[in-house]
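[User] I wish I could look at a protein chain and see how it folds. I have put the entry right below:
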Amino acid sequence: MPDSEIEIVVDDPTAPEADSPSVLSLRSVDVAVSLLLIALAATLGYDNWRTGISWDSTGPQAGYFPFYLSVVLAGASIYGVIVASLKQDEPAESFVSRAQLRRVMAVFVPTLLFCLATQFLGLYVASFLLIAGFMRMVGRIALWKSLLTAFVFTAAMFITFDIAFDVIMPKGPLEAAFGY
């Protein structure tokens, strides 16, 4: 057998179980996204209609093209709802399993908390906590390595943005205590 036909299979020990129960079906996600897009198209359509969707002496008004784009978006979304509704006789395909959702949430929740912490603690302290937390919890890296890496990265980010380039970044009480 030539070398190009050799298949290398590497198992991921942290991969989600294949037999994990489904949380959401693909059809339900298709319908939910299509309905959200219809709501967005209606909002955009109304706002552009209010701005003006006709022609005046100088040409099209400001809402003319965006209004018709929102009509196209609404039409495509209605088509998506109809197609998903016609597939109700078919077996539901899984969009995400419980194990997969758990892995996604392991990244999403800390990232959301990072965004909230940035408002109160500043970018650098929040970044330190996010990096150290991810390395420790998700990567299962030794605590001292996690803290050291987070500190070095955050210090490099501070030196680069605040000192070298003088970029205004969200600051918190720690930076204020040091006079920044």
Remarks:
- Strands lie at 22-25, 55-56, 59-60, 94-97.
- The longest helix spans residues 26-51.
- The longest strand covers residues 22-25.
